[in-house]
Amino acid sequence: MGAAFAKGLTFKMGQTHVHKYLKPLLGRIERGEIDPSFVITHRYALSDTAEVYKRFATEQDECVKVVLKP
Predict the structure, then answer these.
(1) Does residue 38 contact residue 62 with C-beta atoms inside 8 Å?
(2) What is the dihedral angle through the alpha carbons of 35, 39, 43, 46, rounded to the nearest 10 degrees?
(3) To pair with 35 at 20 to 30 A between CA atoms, which of 1, 41, 55, 66?
(4) What does pTM read for this prediction?
(5) Is-contact 42 52, C-beta < 8 A?
(6) Residue 45 forms beta bridges with which residues?
(7) CB atoms closer than 10 angstroms to residue 25
(8) Exposure string over 37-68, b if 16+ CB within 10 A, otherwise e
(9) Confidence at residue 1, expressed as pLDDT on a 0 to 100 scale
(10) Is the distance from CB of 67 to CB of 41 less than 8 angstroms?
């Protein structure tokens, strides 16, 4: 990082407000107002991470959101 700053490079970063929305979102899920399963398109074992990343990067099998299980 120091070398990048020494060259005068500019970094632009963003943040999501996960903490702001997490508690209300979990409450809506618990009350049955939202079904989060529509977002998760694939479930894989953690050991399959390399293959899953390729599927996600190339959007194979309409891969949108993956849950990795340890």
Answers:
(1) no
(2) -110
(3) 55
(4) 0.42
(5) yes
(6) 69
(7) 14
(8) eeeeebeeeeeeeeebeebbeeeeeebeebee
(9) 64
(10) no
Looking at residue 37, its amino acid is S
Name the one residue in this structure whose structure tokens are 């943040």: 15
Q: Which residue shows structure tokens 């194979």?
A: 60
Q: Domains of the chain: which residue ranges? A: 36-70
Angle among Cα 13, 56, 27 to the nearest 5 degrees reads: 70
Residue-level pLDDT, tens digit, the chain, 70 residues: 667 777 877 777 777 777 888 889 889 989 999 887 777 777 889 898 888 888 878 877 777 777 788 7
